Each structure stands twice: as C-alpha cells, then as structure tokens.
Amino acid sequence: MPRRIKLAIFDLDQTLINTIKRAYFVYNYARKKLGLNSINWKVFYTRFKDDRLGEDIPKDLERTFWEIFRTKYCEIIADEDKPIDGAENVLKTLKDAGIKIIVTTGRSCTPQEVWKELKKFGLSEYIDDVYTAMGYDHKEDIPFERSTLLMAILEKYQISPDEAVFIADYFPDMYAGKKVGILTIGVKTGLKSERSLKEHGADYVIDSIGSLLGLLKEIGVL
Q1: Of 146, 140, 208, whose CA–CA distance to 177 is shortest?
Q2: Residue 1 has pLDDT above 60, yes or no
Q3: DSSP β-bridge partners for residue 164
Q4: Confidence (pTM)
C-alpha cells in the first residue's frame, strides 16, 4: 500500500509558472553574448518542444552558453510570465494538509531571487523552502538534472524517498526523480509528450499542475 506523502517538491518553470516567453528572451540573450544569431519565436517554440535548443550551439561554447542562460533567467522577467492554472489551489490544499512544500529550479541564481518571484505571483505563502541549482549544477550527471539537490532536500527534512513526490516538466527531472527513488510526476505544460516523460522515468504524467490533487488521491498518497 502506498505511503502518504509528507513532502512535495515542485519544479518552478513550466510546472508552477509559465515562463516560456522568458526562456525565449534569455535564450536569444545568451546567443547574442556568444556572437550567435538570434532565432525567431516560431523556431524557438518548435525547438523547445522537441528538446533541440542546443542543436546549433558549437560544442566548445555549450557549457558557457548554458551557464549564461541559467544565470540570466532570474534577471529577465517577461510580461507573459504567470502561474500555471490551478497552481495556487494545489499549493494551498497541500499546505493545509500539513505537507511540506519545496520549490526547486535549474536556474543558477540565489533562492532569494526565486522567493521574490514567488511573492510577485502570490505563491510564496504556501512554500516552505526554495532550492536553486546554484552550488549543485557542477554535480549533475546530465545537464539540468537535480538528483543531488533532491537528496539534500530529503536529508534536511528527514523524509524517506517513499514519503515524497517530485512534480516537474523536463526529461532530466524525470531522470533525477527516478534515480533518487521519489514518486515522480511529469506535467505536459513543458510541452513534452507523455510517452517521452515516462521513457525518462516519470511514474505518472498529467496535463498540468491543476490535475495533481486528483491523481494523488487516486493513487492513495494524499
């Protein structure tokens, strides 16, 4: 019988907050910094959906490119940035149920910068802690995976993997959750298919964060 969860770990971008337009601006910023031509929105959207954003970045510039991208992500805010539908209700319901809520991100910026955003979008009151990739990015098995960060969270809160759930939208997140042994739920708001998310380690896939509570109740962990 599944154990009730005590800890919910949420990815930030495209899971709790829609920042795809910001990603587009930051992506082109990083390209220009390295002398590469910018790309238009349509091309970016297609590459983002197909996980091909790195396809024309020269190999010798890849590391620097993604360092710029991850560092700059907290500095550029797009007018279109907004919480994913249902995010506040899900966080409030879990908080009211006594579940610790942690937000994580692959951005390389300080937790304080993320807290400011969560406050701006009306979500901060439901969050117990924030972890960013800063200080953890050099420990990744593959780019953007957060297994070391997830383990640090479990250790801090003295929670076993089978008492936690990780909700995120990207392939490396699925890999990290699987590696650590946490119940891992993929959301399709990151434009990745259900099949692909499951192939990379997702235990379940939902359309968006708004469907999370129903799933957690259905599988008996809430």
Answers
A1: 146
A2: no
A3: 7
A4: 0.97
